[in-house]
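Bench log. Compound arrived from synthesis this morning; before running ITC I wanted a structural hypothesis for how magnesium ion sits in the protein. Inputs:
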Amino acid sequence: MTSLDAVDRSRLPAHVGVIMDGNGRWAGQRGLPRNAGHEQGETALFDTVEGALALGLRWLTVYAFSTENWKRPPTEVAFLLNFNRDLLLRRAGELDEREVRVRFIGRRGRPVPRRLVRMIESTEARTARHRRLTLQVAFNYGGRTELVDAARAVAHDVADGALRPDRVDARAIQARLYTPGAPDVDLLVRTSGEQRLSNFLLWEAAYAELVFTDVLWPDFGREHLYAAVAEFQRRSRRFGTV
Ligand code: IPE
Ligand code: IPE
Ligand code: MG
């Protein structure tokens, strides 16, 4: 078990992304329905948030539901929609108390139910003043969709004459992402042994250090976060230089 002492707190990643994967396999190994794995994932998420607070991380983005996850069986999709809403109902007070600013990134239109969007909006409003930790929940999120939405915003601004075509650069795109003010992702963690991005934070993680662990998401917790940050600190980052 990795303790807090394994981490140099003066060299923390500015932004950590987590692909919370393996809930279904966790449940399958126990002869339980997949949804039991999602339920257990809540404990893992909140232990990870506690770990982020203990470390002093400022930005944590977790992948909760992708634009591709609509392709799952309707019963699982329905479960995940209700589950995420209930989770907010249960946990918004705790996050507020812990001074966590909660934000959702992803498209909020159909087919995301209105009642979930209302819960998202109220949680964001309730926690908007906090700066200790920003917890971004990627829901109905896709990295390509985020870039499509940024491209549309650019196109509108160009059409309106607010932006000259020759002024479209990386900064102009960055400014039209879902969270323009967020720092780049320094560390990207994926659980469950899969080694792919699955359309997560494609722009933001362009130079992220990738850490893959075989731990299934429901078994993840603060010690695994500490271990991932310690691993990040052992990497040599060059950003194209020598
Ligand atoms: C991650 O666990 C949760 C979501 C994608 C919503 P999975 O449900 O993908 O679990 P596995 O990958 O099937 O084990
Ligand atoms: C990525 O996991 C999405 C989330 C964790 C929410 P998936 O389980 O959906 O990804 P694939 O299908 O294995 O690429
Ligand atoms: Mg999966």
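What the model suggests: The radius of gyration is 18 Å. The mean pLDDT is 98.
ITC booked for Thursday regardless.
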